[in-house]
Amino acid sequence: MSLALADGHFPVRWSRNFGFGYGMPLFEFYAPLPYYVGSGLFLAGLDLVLILKILFAGVSLLTVIGAYLLGKELLGRMSGIMVAALLNLAPYRAVNLYVRGALGEVWGLMALPWILYGILLVIRQRRWGWLVLTISLSVLMLSHNLTTLMFVPLSGVFAACYGLIEWFTQRRKLRQLIAAGWQLAGSYVLAIGLSAFYLFPALMEKGYTKVESIVGGYFDYHLHFLYIRQFILPGWSYGGSSWGPDDGISFFLGWGQWLALGCLASAGLVWVFSAFRHRQSAQNRFSTRLLAQVSLSLGLAAVAIWMTIGKSTSLWDGVPFLAYIQFPWRWLSIAVVFLSLASGYSLWFLPQRWQRLCLMLGVVLVTVVGNFWKFQPESYLDTASSFYYTDPERIHVHMSGVLQDYIPIQMSDDLIFNAQAQVPLLINQTQAVGIEVDRVHEKLLRTNFTQPQRLELAMADFPGWSAELDGQNLPIGHTPLGVISLDIPAGEHLVSVRFGPTKVRLLSDILSAVSALVLLFLVLPGVKAREKIHQDD
């Protein structure tokens, strides 16, 4: 991405060195936001490994802040601290950080508490609630498309149910509920618009790639359902997912998480018993509103957990796009958020502040002691360059083999299985061709053939590539291997090849630009109003 940005390719869609050196539209399909941030730091001169540490550490800090604000908004500071600890130190986050190294998924999970926090602010009619929701939704959509696919529908359910709970229990006016509904819908629409430059091309042009290869074989979701005992067994390892209950990675929910849920369940039973014996006092102590809220959080957590186990197979089989999630246990990203949120309500069942403080400190202590040791690497490298490098030749041969999902569909397996470290731009190299410009997204060649020739470029053909001969349109073809070929007439000519927008990309880019202007238009009056208030003060 940094190569593309330095060459003026924006929004970045084409990767020059992936695809075994023939290129592929990596960032049209791979959620780009973490890599835009990382590339900005890389172009500023920071070390590659330091940048990776910043990306992972920074997102962990934002996860803590978002979870704290969410818990605090619902039930106060102590609940905010407990929700932040339970979410940020959930073992599944350690799996994503230190076992899988799933940067996009970690960023996606970070956005989830912020989205719920934004929903609460909108429903409670706070001034900048819509902005928090819009930005956090955009971050999610541009960070991890699979988490987006899983979470956005559930967030809509959360918003609708929470709004109804507030309306029925707080006696809000119907017009207030309708106004909040319009703000919520507007935030979702605006976030989709801001992310459109990535979302719509990724959805509508995936058929031009070999992406179907990611839903079969090892990646078949039938092989990766969890067993209930895996949520309880505290084992830990640095392996991988496999069929059956003996995966090489842990799906334990966490000691602190189980303690908090146990306290919540115990308090709930005590409340039910009290409600039957002393109905009036129980009603005074525990409001219907908070009971509905905790039920909502537990219900959504249960849905997410149910999606990870084999009992949900019929739903997976009936909804084709779920196959792209590959690993059902990815739903744990959603489960740990709602479980952490539900656990925060356990404090509310205690009548005395000192009791709530003791429970909060106890849960946080157990969470830290029980889970913190998982947040460390399996081992340390003697040299970071064995895994982290910018050498194009190593990317051509080694890294390209790891990520083959978005290679153009017509690209031959002969190129894939016979990867070369050095891939010259011209396959049929000749002195009659001079390379004037060689950028990620555009090439300029000077040809001087004595007779017409077919020029073959070491560039994978994909919708968006176009060519010109002396400023006039030149048809593009591709060889049986799937690389671009051009029929060049005799004589001296300038041949340009550019990667540009298709109709889908162009409309998506326009929609994102318009959405950005709308966001700016909505934000500026509020900023000016606040500045005026400060000046008057």
Number of DSSP helices? 20
Q: Which structural class fits the helix and strand makeup? A: alpha+beta
Major β-sheet annotation: 5 strands, antiparallel
Distance between the amino and carboxyl termini: 47 Å
Q: How do the strands of the widest beta sheet line up side by side? A: 1-2-8-4-5
Please specify the SSE layout and strand pairing.
Elements: H1 2-6, H2 26-29, H3 33-43, H4 48-75, H5 77-88, H6 91-99, H7 103-123, H8 129-143, H9 145-170, H10 174-194, H11 196-204, H12 255-277, H13 279-285, H14 288-306, H15 313-318, H16 332-344, H17 353-371, H18 392-402, H19 413-417, E1 433-438, E2 442-449, E3 453-460, E4 465-469, E5 472-474, E6 477-478, E7 483-488, E8 491-499, H20 503-536
Antiparallel strand pairs: 1-2, 2-8, 3-7, 4-5, 4-8, 6-7
Helix pairs in contact: 3-4, 4-5, 4-7, 5-16, 5-17, 7-8, 7-9, 8-9, 8-10, 9-10, 9-14, 10-20, 11-20, 12-13, 12-16, 12-17, 14-16
Describe the structure.
The chain contains 20 helices and eight strands. With 537 residues, it is an alpha+beta fold. It has a domain of 344 residues. The strands form two sheets. The chain has a five-stranded antiparallel sheet, with no helix packed on it. The longest helix is centred in the last third of the chain and has 34 residues. The chain starts with a helix and ends with a helix.
Attribute tags:
8 strands, 5-stranded antiparallel beta sheet, 9% strand, alpha+beta, 537 residues, 55% helix, single chain, 3-stranded antiparallel beta sheet
Question: What does this entry show, briefly?
Answer:
With 537 residues, this protein is of the alpha+beta class.
